[in-house]
Amino acid sequence: MCTQYLFCVLVDAMKRNYIHTFVSVDCVVFGFDNENLNILLVKREKEPTTEFKNMKLPGSLIYNDEDVDDAANRVLYELTGIRRMSLRQFRCFASPDRARNVEDQKWLDKEYQPNINRLITVAYLSLCKIDRKLVNISKYKDSVWLPISELPQMPFDHNLIVEESLSEIRKWVESEPVVIFELLPSKFTISQVRKLYEAIYNKKIDVRNFHKKIAAMPYVVALNEKQQNVSHRAARYYKFDKTIYNKR
Amino acid sequence: MCTQYLFCVLVDAMKRNYIHTFVSVDCVVFGFDNENLNILLVKREKEPTTEFKNMKLPGSLIYNDEDVDDAANRVLYELTGIRRMSLRQFRCFASPDRARNVEDQKWLDKEYQPNINRLITVAYLSLCKIDRKLVNISKYKDSVWLPISELPQMPFDHNLIVEESLSEIRKWVESEPVVIFELLPSKFTISQVRKLYEAIYNKKIDVRNFHKKIAAMPYVVALNEKQQNVSHRAARYYKFDKTIYNKR
DNA sequence: TCAAAAGTGTTCGATATACACCCATGC
DNA sequence: GCATGGGTGTATATCGAACACTTTTGA
């Protein structure tokens, strides 16, 4: 493709005033630590630092010949080493002001290239078992789980994206309840599941009713195994059986 | 902004292989003709033609300094003369192949400019009273309502977008039932509402149960007015009362 | 023996479903 | 008077919400 031609295209685009822009994906990755919902953030600096600031949502500009879903999968793979994490696109954020902060502009200059005057992003939700060992091969060497109540000020509109992701995760769980098992270890107790629901919906749930609800799910099967070394009656472990679930 | 600088930006973008692209919005506008759900399509040709083909979803590239929501509102305003139609973003379509068809490439060349080799679109749902007089000030002079069962082959991935919009409109009605009144005339009978539900969910609904359901909505108020000149018992008219609805 | 969490059933109200007949009107 | 669609009530099943006590275990 002739660059001179592209140059004309670009000038023409400016004349006509149509946007010609970069597009990124940003991922809100949820994890659950048995108490709070957490989100996986990265540090803006490429090299590890001791400073605990300047955190952002993991994301990337998308490549040529790359679909946005693929870009989100790539970001997650580079961040965690996991292929095919659960993924849900939830909104395109395209306010002309979202990348206008001076600090953000500086960072874009350094990180990508000068003069990105506008950046549109497509936001994704993802779910991850928080105790899973992550293999980070992304350019951001530091990543950290933070409870949603303790999130810092983040660049661009990342705080807004997280806020919307919270109502989105509820919609997701309502329309497809089994996604919650992606946030739990493969062996779990019913009270872990309940606490997860409580964290997602931010309200107390009745213990007995919840047991009934789980008992009505044939794909949640009891194991012959109980908690060890707990200073109270040991809870039984359960697992999610995908085979039974897929048979409906 | 110096164009030479932008030129460098562009070349650099190619080198790095990040996408630098145009972004569009496309709107799936639903209407209801008392029998079927319809969608408002435009003809690709800017001038009116007698040929009934080459229809597409109304849409537009977005401008600099324009948010995608604003672009969708603009498209709808130019198409209908109505400001602030109900609007719901539902997905970003970004497959690298979506604009690769030769005919679509030719059209982009002519319509916008040569060499748009990729185009990302953000899809919106909208609702419109089908008998409303539309004031079309867009560049597409022909627009037409077509029942969803009779849609032609459309350019790009517009058939796919429509397909997804059908499950999206159900989600919308479930999460916010009063949006259906945007598809009905301001005076309507209960059986009109029922037929609309039947069209959206594509299944028969029990008449008596449906009357009960409507009767449970205090914001649907009966008028002292009935159908005229119908060869059967005249049905009572109702209206949607926004004031009562807003008071909950 | 105490503290801490696990586990377990019943009742009630709200909501969704199923189902059949008479009414009003124009022709 | 007949064809057409309008309008109405009751019974049953399902689902979610409320609610308190006993059990197990480690310290």
Could you characterize what this model shows?
2 copies of one chain form a homodimer. By secondary structure, chain A is α+β, with helices and mostly antiparallel strands. The first copy, chain A, folds into 2 domains: 17-173, Nucleoside Triphosphate Pyrophosphohydrolase, CATH 3.90.79; 186-247, Orthogonal Bundle (Arc Repressor Mutant, subunit A), CATH 1.10.10. Chain A has helices at residues 3-16, 68-80, 102-111, 158-175, 190-201, 207-215, 242-246, and strands spanning 21-32, 37-43, 55-56, 59-61, 87-93, 119-127, 143-147, 220-226, 236-240. In chain A, the strands form 2 sheets. In chain A, strands 1, 2, 3, 4, 5, 6 and 7 form a 7-stranded mixed sheet that branches. A two-stranded antiparallel ribbon of chain A has the order 8-9. In chain A, strand 1 and strand 2 (37-43) form a beta hairpin. The longest helix of chain A is centred in the last third of the chain and has 18 residues, at 158-175. The first copy, chain A, is elongated. The relative contact order of chain A is 0.15. The model of chain A is unreliable at 11-16 (pLDDT under 50). The interface between A and B is large, with 45 and 45 residues.
Brief write-up:
Two copies of one chain form a homodimer. Chain A has 248 residues and is an alpha+beta fold. Chain A is 33% helix and 23% strand.
Pick out its properties.
homodimer; 248 residues; alpha+beta; Nucleoside Triphosphate Pyrophosphohydrolase; Arc Repressor Mutant, subunit A; 2 domains; 23% strand; elongated; DNA-binding
